[in-house]
Amino acid sequence: xxxxxxxxxxxxxxxxxxxxxxxxxxxxxxxxxxxxxxxxxxxxxxxxxxxxxxxxxxxxxxxxxxxxxxxxxxxxxxxxxxxxxxxxxxxxxxxxxxxxxxxxxxxxxxxxxxxxxxxxxxxxxxxxxxxxxxxxxxxxxxxxxxxxxxxxxxxxxxxxxxxxxxxxxxxxxxxxxxxxxxxxxxxxxxxxxxxxxxxxxxxxxxxxxxxxxxxxxxxxxxxxxxxxxxxxxxxxxxxxxxxxxxxxxxxxxxxxxxxxxxxxxxxxxxxxxxxxxxxxxxxxxxxxxxxxxxxxxxxxxxxxxxxxxxxxxxxxxxxxxxxxxxxxxxxxxxxxxxxxxxxxxxxxxxxxxxxxxxxxxxxxxxxxxxxxxxxxxxxxxxxxxxxxxxxxxxxxxxxxxxxxxxxx
Length: 408
Hints:
Layout: H1 2-23, H2 31-34, E1 35-50, E2 59-72, E3 77-86, E4 91-97, E5 104-111, E6 114-127, E7 130-138, H3 160-165, E8 171-180, E9 185-193, E10 222-233, E11 236-246, E12 261-273, E13 276-287, H4 290-297, E14 314-325, H5 327-330, E15 337-352, E16 364-377, E17 380-391, E18 396-407
Antiparallel strand pairs: 1-2, 1-18, 2-3, 3-6, 4-5, 6-7, 7-8, 8-9, 9-10, 10-11, 11-12, 12-13, 13-14, 14-15, 15-16, 16-17, 17-18
């Protein structure tokens, strides 16, 4: 109880301080001078030849359209929001009705397409080394958060490694402190809501513990995180990120009498030079009391729509990627590019298990991907790739995909 009261008091005083800070700023002059609208989108086609699912059908996917709506109240105060339309599909939310005898999960279809308010926050810019953001914001772990626009990553869909075992498009509620320590060093520090252990699974580790199922996000357990980057050049950097937070206090029901701390550490690297682009990423994660969480999850309600499979105590992941722009060899067109790229992914969501939890070999996965990216305009990219994924069980999944991405 005390830690929750303390957290509430901290947030209250932070907000009061920001209110006083905002009153000292000059009034804005209007939307035309201070507002902005930006966005990006992705549409893909997939052709599957999977041993894990021989009947998997080929598909088109209007993957996402993200719109950024922002407003600069002054040079030091900025509002930012992001709305994402995913897969052109269905949208639903869940609620937990505590008035039922045993508590019931209720799911309601709300709209014809899934619309998510990814960001809504205010950034206070004190100086070059201190900025504070409050609200719901993008959570910068790894590389996927940095390379989010389709023109910034080479594959048709976002990072296979990060998308499988970690929340991709990771956004959380809380406070972010960021800034530049010098011309080369930058940092970010976070105090945010934690994950929900009821969503952890064998295949995805903590990815589906990202709280998106309910109308409100549980915040009994908070998490802390940090990121430190060193600039190698324009658009190039090397750095580390770390995350630590409990996850059992954010379960839909208060059914856990133990902790489930999630710890994640990663190393990330981006380096562009001339026609070459290179990226690399490595992560290691640990979940405490994974056996107890696995046993508890087996008894979850079917209506909660979670996997209820055992979860590993440790997970690992890495990828390396290199691309080369061949267009300068045959043309002098400056605003077009033609990249050929290769990529290797390895990830294991059950790298280690605890107690009697079985280490299922099929969740050790590796993938080789090769493909093309053509930029007819700096803000538009046409992509094609072929990937071969091998599971630890020996099954092979082959996928051809192609698509278009854009930003504005």
